[in-house]
Specification:
The structure holds two protein chains of two kinds. Chain A is of the alpha+beta class. Helix content of chain A is 50%, strand content 13%. The longest helix of chain A has 44 residues, at 417-460. Chain B is of the alpha/beta class. Chain B has one domain (6-221): 3-Layer(aba) Sandwich (Rossmann fold), CATH 3.40.50. Chain B has seven helices and eleven strands. In chain B, strand 9 (212-217) and strand 10 (220-223) form a beta hairpin. In chain B, helix 3 (102-112) packs across helix 4, helix 3 (102-112) runs parallel beside helix 5 and helix 4 (117-130) packs across helix 5. Chain B is globular, with a radius of gyration of 17 Å. The two termini of chain B are 13 Å apart. The chains are: A alpha+beta, B alpha/beta. At the A-B interface, helix 11 and helix 16 of A face helix 2, strand 6 and helix 3 of B.
Chain lengths: 801, 229
């Protein structure tokens, strides 16, 4: 039988260097975090998950610079360096033209190339220039062409001979459908053909307008600030239970400083696990990023690598924040032995320092608002700092505002027991609620401000009409097809599967020729008249002709644009056009030409004023420069009709363009729209993230009140009363937070708009959507709390033995 | 069969938690104004009996009669309404809402019954005076001593003028002096209002305040006056 070793009162015990004490206590706290039984583990897991979500967002943000640089690098590598104007072919030049099309909602980017010498520049991602008849394809395109889904696309490449696969260096993103086709059809530079001496030497760096930079800066701050708030909340999950455990430690001799260090150790363990979780989440999330494109920029997963400095900052700041926040939070908690936790007397929240943050933010933003925003490093930092201060000021003001509002509501004596319970609960532990909700407030305020800014910038941009037509237009530009092959083109297009109606036409530009004798009849300042030559059936789709027979000519008036008058002599060579060495052919508008009105339903590009002539009235072969076109109506029940038309056009000539506005073309707002959509998605994601935090806080509070809930149930408190109490408890801070967010967001937005010199046009639907999401968060938190509430309102909680 | 004149009675109560029986054919009755102490060792089924009598839980079988009602046949909402209007409760601890003041805690059952706040608080104030804790009416539970907290709980149990008060170890967390004072106030107030008291305890000094003692052992009830029932 072993004899207990007597307690040595002279042993050094907990004496030792401070650093050793810190390490020992932090380690003990970390051990508690992972050895606290099922509940302890659950709490640590929640902290790790919460911190992990925040860390993942931070790592993604830290990866943006590298990702943008990589994406821009690849985009720049594909840009062409044109040969000097007028220079001829050399052994170092390449002829190149684009062949962009689409396949089932995916863009297909193509370039036709012809090396003019052995040292012609090689496109990025290729080992050599494809020889005539050869095609280099991207891996995604190669896979598509090899799959049954790409069978229809393969018809567009009847003699496909793949020379090589384009490597990542030549692609915007992994899923890009891209090809380089070697051809002999390119004879020299022309309307769409370029002679180049190299790739990727364009030295204009990635630049967006200062206004877009402003929007991105504010968006980043608006999205990251609530993440910081959420992180601060996440490291405090389970704080109340932890305090009870610390009280037990006090009973066995731990002093207050020790309990603080142990608490910090627990938080540190959660934060470190959160770092690991966040890294795993980040690695999982960056894969889908390869599907995101920003205009011509796209990403490979390997692009999304956090900046080393920023990643190191996150790795140090998150655990540091966990320890700091825990120690700060414990200032007001007196952990006493015998399990007694006495919250230090509630001090009236001091107001004086809280407005300093938003005021400081406004002070930083105001000079930029007054003088106008000019993007440079100093101005960018000033705007980011000002925005961050203003938004964090909201987070600082909210606890005071909530405290004041709850005190007033509590004094008013109105409302039923559920209201009273909620308001009093908020009064006692409103800081927790305010802390969680401040994340929502910052996110919504930032989102509203940026929405306002983007709406203002959008309103400043010239409005582009959004074409919409049931017609699909096919166009062979000048030089691609001779007029003699026009009929062949119409016939092939009309025969394509899914084409219901096909009309052919030839378009050109003609100029006035009525000039004094002895002078150049082509006045270079004169506006040319658009001319369309087609049969009556086609012309009827363009204008309200009335009667029409071959040989007729029509004049379509429109707006202030001039149209020739009957009897006017016109030159068939456009002003300042090509072919100056020819004697210009002329043509006189017949005296019988009638004025008609254009049809609104005419295909885009073929509407507006000008001349409409039937073939007998004007022989199109007399035109020097012309486009051969067709407009088609496709079978709406045949979704692949457009692909059949593309294939038919490609078989005629790969340079033929096709434009389909059947669904109404979406206006491409580029990076502005992407910023807006990204911000809206980010704000909603942050709202949901904060909702998770609120839910965890509410569930934790319910667990801590299990006995009380059982007692309340025992004396007959209706469940609905307690459910409503939870609803109010969530709704009051969120409603206050949203009100504050609206005020702050609109103010910040106005300041930013002043910088952008844009009109104030709040995007109310977006604002309402955000507030609606916040309402959904409130209801969701309440609904998800109810099962636990019902479970805790059982008599088991009343047992004392 | 209902014992004659009883306010609340139970017959052949059976209740098991999994394979463990808590009540095994328990019988019980209490008359208006009567204080009955329910005694027994830990785990004997005292609290389960109290919870069944109060309609907090349903027994597996048997009946609980209160006036014309069989509590075992009432819905959860009906039993909750009955507990709000006719029953009062005092537990050992953890029963006061920490956010509310002492006065608001006492007024809470009245407010749950639909009383206006001012009227509820007026009545609550009377009970606080009677239980000698009016001085702390504005304080929250965390600021009260254990004895004060239990008096507040007693006031809350009495404020609706219940016909039956259920007290589960009401002095378990108090020192003897405070415990005696609380029990005196509880039983006096109950007798004044003709309320019956079901007092669960394992302390014989607490049981001394009762008119009758019963002992629960292995889920069966023994009446110390009438012998085994």
């Amino acid at each position: 039988m072993s004899v207990p070793v007597p307690y040595d009162r002279t042993a050094p015990g907990r004496r030792g260097p401070k650093a050793v004490l810190w390490c020992r206590d932090l380690a003990m706290g970390a051990r508690f975090a992972v050895t606290g039984g099922r509940k302890g583990l659950l709490r640590t897991a929640l902290t790790a998950l919460g911190v992990g979500l925040g860390v993942a967002v931070l790592l993604l943000a830290a990866a943006i610079p590298n990702a943008m640089n990589a994406a821009y690098g690849r985009d720049r590598a594909r840009s062409t360096v044109p040969a000097a104007e007028g220079s001829g072919p050399t052994d170092r030049t390449l002829l190149i033209t684009t062949q962009n099309s689409g396949y089932r909602d995916q863009p297909v980017h193509g370039r036709a190339v012809r090396a003019e010498g052995p040292h012609a520049p090689v496109p990025p991602g290729l080992s050599r220039v494809p020889a005539p008849g050869e095609t280099a394809v991207s891996p995604a395109l190669a896979d598509l062409l090899a799959s049954p889904e790409g069978a229809l696309l393969k018809e567009r490449f009847p003699d496909l001979r793949i020379s090589e696969r384009i490597s990542d260096a030549g692609l915007a993103h992994p899923d890009e459908l891209l090809f380089y086709e070697g051809t002999e059809a390119l004879s020299g530079p022309g309307e769409d053909v370029e002679r180049i001496t190299g790739f990727g030497e364009r030295n204009d760096g990635f630049r967006s307008s200062p206004l877009v930079v402003l929007a991105i800066l504010v968006g980043c701050v608006a999205l990251l600030a609530p993440v910081a708030v959420f992180l601060a909340t996440a490291v405090r999950f389970g704080g109340e239970r932890r305090d009870l455990r610390l009280a037990a430690l006090r009973l066995v001799g731990a002093d207050r400083a020790t309990t603080r260090r142990i608490a910090a150790g627990e938080a540190l363990a959660g934060a470190l696990l959160g770092l690991l979780t966040g890294t795993a989440l980040f690695l999982a999330v960056r894969l889908p990023l390869s599907t995101v494109t920003l205009g011509s920029l796209g990403f490979f997963p390997s692009d999304v690598v956090p900046d080393a400095g920023l990643a190191a900052f996150v790795a140090l700041a998150v655990p540091g924040c966990a320890v700091g926040v825990t120690l700060f939070a414990m200032r007001r908690v007196a952990v006493e032995p015998l399990g007694v936790i006495r919250t230090a007397p509630q001090r009236c929240r001091r107001l004086w320092w809280r407005p300093l943050l938003p005021v400081g933010g406004v002070a930083l933003l105001l000079p930029q608002a007054i003088g106008g925003f000019h993007s440079n490093d100093a101005a960018n930092i000033q705007v980011m700092l000002g925005t961050a201060l203003l938004l964090l000021g909201v987070a600082a003001l909210l606890p005071w505002l909530l405290g004041a509002a709850v005190a007033r509501l509590g004094r008013s004596g109105r409302g039923g027991p559920s209201w009273q319970l909620a308001v009093r609960r908020l009064g006692l532990s409103g800081t927790t609620a305010a802390r969680s909700v401040s994340g929502i407030t910052v996110a919504v305020a930032g989102a509203i401000a940026v929405q306002l800014l983007l709406a203002g910038i959008d309103a400043k941009l010239p409005a582009e009409p959004v074409p919409h037509s049931l017609w699909t237009t096919v166009l062979a530009r000048d030089g691609v097809l001779p007029a003699a092959r026009a009929h062949e083109m119409y016939a092939r297009l009309a025969a394509a599967d899914g084409v219901r109606t096909a009309h052919g036409l030839i378009t050109a530009q003609v100029g006035p020729a009525g000039t004094p004798p002895g002078t150049d009849p082509r006045d270079p300042d004169a506006e040319p008249y658009p001319l369309t030559v087609a049969d009556c059936a086609a012309l009827r789709e363009l204008a309200r002709l009335g009667s029409c027979s071959d040989g007729d000519v029509f004049l379509v008036r429109g707006g202030a644009d001039a149209v020739p008058h009957p009897g006017e002599r016109l030159t068939l060579t456009p002003p300042a056009g090509h072919g100056a060495h020819h004697r210009p052919a002329t043509w006189t508008v017949p005296a019988t030409a009638r004025h008609v009105a254009a049809r609104d339903s005419a295909p885009p590009w073929l509407t507006g004023p000008g001349l409409l002539a039937t073939p007998k009235a004007l022989d199109a072969t007399r035109l020097d420069h012309f486009h051969v076109g067709a407009f088609l109506r496709l079978d709406p029940d045949s979704p692949d009709a457009i692909e059949h038309v593309r294939n038919a056009a490609a078989r005629i000539d790969f340079r033929i363009d096709l434009v389909n506005f059947e669904g109404g073309g979406a206006r491409d707002d580029g990076i502005l729209a992407l910023t807006r959509h990204g911000l809206t998605a980010g704000a909603h994601a942050v709202l949901l993230l904060i909702g998770c935090g609120l839910l965890l806080t509410t569930l934790e509070q319910l667990h801590d009140r299990a006995r009380l809930l059982s007692a309340l149930d025992a004396f007959g408190t209706p469940r609905a009363t307690l459910a409503r109490s939870i609803l109010w408890q969530t709704a009051v801070p969120v409603a206050l937070g949203l009100t504050l967010a609206l005020a702050c967001g609109l103010s910040l937005g106005c300041l930013l708009l002043h910088m952008a010199n844009g009109p104030l046009q709040p995007d109310w639907p977006a604002i309402l959507t955000l507030t609606g999401t916040a309402a959904v968060v409130i209801l969701g938190v309440t609904a998800l709390s109810l099962p636990l509430l019902w479970r805790l309102m059982r008599p088991e909680g009343l047992r004392t033995e | 069969m209902t014992p004659e004149g009883s306010l609340l009675s139970a017959e052949a109560l059976h209740k098991a938690y999994g394979a463990t029986p808590a009540l095994d054919g328990a019988e019980f009755s209490v008359h208006p104004g009567e204080v009955v102490a329910v005694m027994g060792p830990s785990g004997s089924g005292k609290s389960t009996l109290l919870h069944c009598l109060a309609g907090i839980i349903r027994p597996d079988s048997g009946t609980v009669r209160y006036g014309p009602h069989d509590l075992t046949r009432l819905s959860d909402a009906q039993r909750s309404a009955l507990r709000r209007s006719d029953f009062g409760f005092v537990f050992q601890f953890g029963q006061l809402v920490p956010e509310l003041t002492a006065l608001e805690n006492v007024a809470l059952p009245l407010r749950l019954n639909g009383a206006k706040r001012k009227e509820a608080e007026r009545q609550a104030r009377e009970w606080l005076e009677r239980l000698e804790v009016d001085a702390v009416h504005g304080q929250r539970p965390g600021e009260l001593s254990g004895g004060q907290g239990q008096r507040i709980a007693v006031a809350r149990a009495l404020v609706t003028r219940p016909r039956v008060i259920f007290a589960d170890e009401p002095t378990g967390a108090l020192d003897s002096l405070n415990g005696e004072r609380v029990l005196t106030l509880l039983t006096d107030a109950a007798r004044d209002t003709s309320a019956a008291v079901v007092l669960v305890t394992h302390e014989s000094r607490v049981a001394a305040y009762s008119d009758r003692e019963i002992v629960v052992r292995d889920g069966k009830v023994k009446d110390m006056l009438a012998g085994l029932i």
